[in-house]
Write a structure and sequence with these properties.
Number of helices: 1
Structural class: alpha+beta
Number of strands: 10
Order of helices and strands: HEEEEEEEEEE
Distance between the termini: 76 Å
Radius of gyration: 29 Å
Helix content: 10-25%
Strand content: over 45%
Largest sheet: 6 strands, antiparallel, barrel
Strand order of the largest sheet: 1-2-3-9-8-10
Shape: elongated
């Protein structure tokens, strides 16, 4: 075995110092990051802030109605609505208006979904329009929802389905 030269010893010291100055801090940073992620997951923060439990109820058609209220503001709703069509058929639709549609003034909340294109499959295309009128009370949300879909088939056939105003109510703590 040969003895190490002065240059080889100096290079070994530099490598050792480089490892200490680069690798160790990187490993320490990764450990801190992993501990933070673990703490965030256990606190329920892994998918952003959790929404409060929704208020649960029914529509007058016995469909599901939920309203999520956060700090007095309506942030979500989920409404099952049955519509009657011109040809006598019925269609069940679940409307979940996006948060940006809600207009809230005090305890009154409205939402209007302007006509939006939908695909119905098998050559059908539709335009959905929806309206929501909601009032928040002490632990209860009451209101009406109204939907309309105007379908057009690739053959030119037209079909309109409407719900008319459908009353609903949802209560805080119901269904828990």
């Amino acid at each position: 075995m040969e003895a190490a030269t002065e240059d080889e010893l100096r290079l070994a010291r530099r490598l050792k110092l480089g490892v200490r100055l680069v690798v160790y801090p990187v490993l320490l940073g990764l450990i801190v990051l992993a501990l933070h992620a673990r703490a965030a997951r256990s606190a329920g923060e892994d998918g952003g802030p959790a929404l409060p439990k929704p208020w649960v109820g029914k529509t007058a058609q016995r469909g599901r109605a939920t309203v999520t209220v956060d700090g007095g503001l309506v942030v979500a709703s989920y409404l099952d609505v049955r519509m009657r069509c011109d040809d006598g058929s019925a269609e069940l639709f679940t409307w979940t208006p996006v948060r940006e549609l809600f207009v809230q003034r005090g305890d009154r909340v409205t939402a209007h979904r302007p006509p939006t294109a939908r695909s119905g499959g098998k050559g059908w295309r539709g335009m959905l329009e929806g309206w929501l009128d909601l009032t928040l009370g002490r632990g209860v949300a009451t209101g009406t929802v109204r939907l309309a879909i105007h379908w057009t088939h690739s053959s030119g056939t037209r079909l309109t389905c409407r719900s008319g105003p459908v009353p609903f109510s949802a209560r805080r703590g119901a269904g828990s």
